[in-house]
């Protein structure tokens, strides 16, 4: 993913000392997701009414280490490659609903059960952000 994937205001943000405004907004939404719940990358972008799943993913890959990154997931519920076991530990600790993997699934790792775990960001209706 290139820096051109970020919204225009953030195109050269990785070369500055300050956190880009879009990244701050993505991280703020991530921190609002309750334990045991998740939003997809696309959900976050939709909630912000800016960017898309790739832009949110880029922000999370660059700046997401200090927030509960495991609460922002792929739309198919598959655990983040390379971070599966760490994420799984957080999901189990928080009681996040999971779907058990079938025998054919690579690594037999569960997926997040989006039907039960997905958070709609309900605070938006109360005027947050």
Please tag this protein with its features.
129 residues, mainly alpha, two-stranded antiparallel sheet
Description:
The chain has 129 residues and is mainly alpha-helical. 36% of the residues lie in helices and 6% in strands. It is built from 5 helices and 4 strands, in the order H-E-H-H-E-H-E-E-H. It has helices at 21-32, 41-48, 53-63, 84-94, 114-117, and strands at residues 39-40, 72-73, 98-99, 111-112. The strands form 2 sheets. Strands 1-2 form a two-stranded parallel sheet. Helix 1 (21-32) packs across helix 2 and helix 2 (41-48) crosses helix 3. The longest helix is centred in the N-terminal third of the chain and has 12 residues, at 21-32. It is globular and about 45 Å long. The model is unreliable at 1-5, 8-16 and 124-129 (pLDDT under 50).
Q: Termini separation (Å)?
A: 27 Å
Q: How many DSSP H or I helices?
A: 5
Helical amount among residues, as a percent range?
25-40%
Which stretches are low in confidence, meaning pLDDT under 50 for 5 or more residues running?
A: 1-5, 8-16, 124-129
Shape: globular
According to DSSP, the number of beta strands is 4
The mean pLDDT is 84
Largest sheet features: 2 strands, parallel
The succession of helices and strands, N to C, reads HEHHEHEEH
Compute the gyration radius: what is it? 15 Å
Structural class: mainly alpha
């Amino acid at each position: 993913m290139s820096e051109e994937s970020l919204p225009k205001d953030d195109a050269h943000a990785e070369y500055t000392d300050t956190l880009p405004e879009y990244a701050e907004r993505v991280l703020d939404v991530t921190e609002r997701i309750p334990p045991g719940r998740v939003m997809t990358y696309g959900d976050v972008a939709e909630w912000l009414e800016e960017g898309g799943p790739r832009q949110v993913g880029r922000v999370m890959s660059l700046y997401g280490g200090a927030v509960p990154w495991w609460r922002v997931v792929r739309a198919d519920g598959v655990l983040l490659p390379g971070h599966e076991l760490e994420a799984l530990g957080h999901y189990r600790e928080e009681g996040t609903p999971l779907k058990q993997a079938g025998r054919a699934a690579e690594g037999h790792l569960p997926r997040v059960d989006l039907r039960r775990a997905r958070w709609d960001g309900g605070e938006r209706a109360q005027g947050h952000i």
